[in-house]
Amino acid sequence: MILDRNAFGVWSFIAKRAFKATFLRPRNGEAARAICETLKETNVAVYIHIPFCTGTCIFCPYTRIPIHRSECERIIEKYVNALLREMKMYSKITKDLSLEVVDIHAGGGTPSLIPGKYWKIILEKLSELFEAEPKIAIEANPEDLRDEAYTSNLVESGVNEVSLGVQSFNPKMLKILGRRHSIEDSIKAIENLRSAGCKYINIDLMYMVPEQTLEDWIKDLETASQQDVDEITCYPTLITPHSIGYKLIKEGKIPTQPSRKVFKKMVYACEDTLPPKGFKGVEIYGYSRRVGWKYVTVNYEMEGPLLGFGCGAMGFTGGYEYINTHSVKDYIDSVLNDRLPIAGAREVALVERAIRYTACRLFVCRILNKKDFRLKFSRGFNELIGRTGFSKALRLLKITGNIEEGNERISLTRKGFFTAHQICWAFVLNVPCRIAEEYLKKPWPSKVVIP
Ligand SMILES: C[S@@+](CC[C@H](N)C(=O)[O-])C[C@H]1O[C@@H](n2cnc3c(N)ncnc32)[C@H](O)[C@@H]1O
Ligand code: SF4
User: Fold this and answer.
1) Among 120, 126, 128, 198, which Cα is nearest to 163's?
2) Pocket mutation for ligand 2, best pick of 60, 166, 173, 433 (most atoms within 8 Å of C-beta)
3) Ligand 1 atom closest to Cα of residue 110
4) What is residue 93's predicted lDDT score, i.e. its pLDDT?
5) Which residues does a 6 A CB cutoff place in the pocket of ligand 2?
6) CATH code of 181's domain
7) 3-class DSSP state for residue 50?
8) pLDDT band for position 313 (cuts 50, 70, 90)
9) pLDDT digits (tens, 9 = 90+) for 13-31
């Protein structure tokens, strides 16, 4: 099979029907006004997108451009300057809101390509402009962190949580994925992070790789659980039509992915292998052995408020969702001319936000706590969600044994664990991946309709 946007049957169909959204290019001043008016909470998270990689992994669905190591320093210096300008613009827009930044996270692309000295500047700027602790969580490639001095410099500069793209402990899988690091590099990167004093280490693994067997995957999970890491995140290899791998599979140049039956077995292999080794399921794809901690990204993206900085970044105030231009050149030109680099935006109604919150808690974090819902929305769960189509879908999932409902919480059953995977990946492929695909076509489209 191919895990593309149509792979999840009824869930792919529902994702396409249920999450229709139209992004429009905002007029001058409109986005600044909307951001300011819709930010109702003072605690916000910050996301910084670093759209550079020193190569291309053939299935990668993210917004990134390949650059050569020799040009990194020049490009990064320009890009970081633009980021600082963008942050300054946001601090002006929100100057009367007394925002406190409670989480700073960088994704990509490859944030570990940015040396420590620049992270220090970025974090100092954020602390100067908002109330913020100079600490950041970044996604990292083992290629960058095999160097001990470079890694300890990152940690000294404020990088205190790292999500490392290990992907596999099997050289054949790394080769098929087009990774440019070895298993030894991954192990060295973990050691370097630990000895530098990094507070929290997550490693990403990928399954459903062409030619991977269920036994290969279980072996990877076991090897991962023996490493000195705090969290293990397991992603199925998702395939978008604009990836190189998609074309190679379609042309028969590389084998297709394992079957649907194997997919289900691989999903449950995570659930059956990691908890007995002390890693507790904190998301449907994430397992942590540090009580009360997880490498958080999806909650802020789905629930807000999140300020997104950088080329290709998305932000969500809670009532307004926006996306920056996906062209690095246009992003830099725009901020240097004192214009927000927002290419598309849309309003998000309270009920839609409540549904996003519920879907994220239940289908990603495994459990929805109705008390937390009331705290977030100052309204009851039934009052906000009760009369929506989403509520009918939840009833159906309950009747079919996918979820269980008590007075105060709704949680996934073991059967629902696989259903949640299908819902989650159908959504990812049909909504965020489609948004990125559309915005990669043109830097400033006037309108984008999703899916
Ligand atoms: C932005 S990357 C992490 C940092 C760095 N760019 C790297 O790859 O090492 C985020 C993670 O997405 C996952 N990923 C990459 N391609 C994927 C795909 N086609 N489907 C699902 N997850 C994927 C990988 O596990 C990767 O570590
Ligand atoms: S998986 Fe990571 S390193 Fe590979 S191309 Fe994508 S963002 Fe870059």
Assistant:
1) 198
2) 60
3) 6
4) 94
5) 53, 56-57, 60, 62, 64, 108-110, 141, 165
6) 3.80.30.20
7) strand
8) very high
9) 999 888 889 999 999 899 9
Nearest ligand 2 atom to alpha carbon 139? 2
Task: Decide the pairing of beta strands 314-316 and 320-324.
Answer: antiparallel
pLDDT at 132 (0 to 100): 95
Per residue in 140-164, pLDDT (tens digit) is 999 999 999 999 999 999 999 999 9
Please enumerate, as own/partner, the contacts of 223-229 that have beta carbons within 8 Å and a separation of 24 or more: 223/169, 224/166, 224/169, 225/273, 225/274, 225/277, 225/278, 225/279, 227/187, 227/190, 227/203, 228/190, 228/191, 228/194, 228/201, 229/164, 229/190, 229/201, 229/202, 229/203
Q: H or E stretch including 128?
A: helix 116-129
Domain containing 216: what range? 1-451
Distance from the Cα of residue 299 to its chain's centroid: 9
pLDDT in tens, 200-222: 999 999 999 999 999 999 999 99
Strand, coil or helix: 314: strand
294 falls in which pLDDT band (50, 70, 90)? confident
Closest residue by CA, ligand 1 atom 1: 108
Q: Is 338 exposed, middle or buried (0-12, 13-18, 19+ CB in 10 A)?
A: exposed
Q: Atom 3 (ligand 2): residue with closest C-alpha? A: 53
Q: Nearest CA to 320 among 307, 309, 331, 332?
A: 307
At residue 327, the pLDDT reads: 97
pLDDT at residue number 295? 87
pLDDT value of residue 367: 96
Q: 214 forms bridges with which residues in the sheet? A: none
Concatenated DSSP letters of 74-103: HHHHHHHHHHHHHHHHHHHHTTTS--EEEE
Res 114 pLDDT > 90: yes
Count of domains for the chain:
1
- CB contact at 8 A, 200 and 295: yes
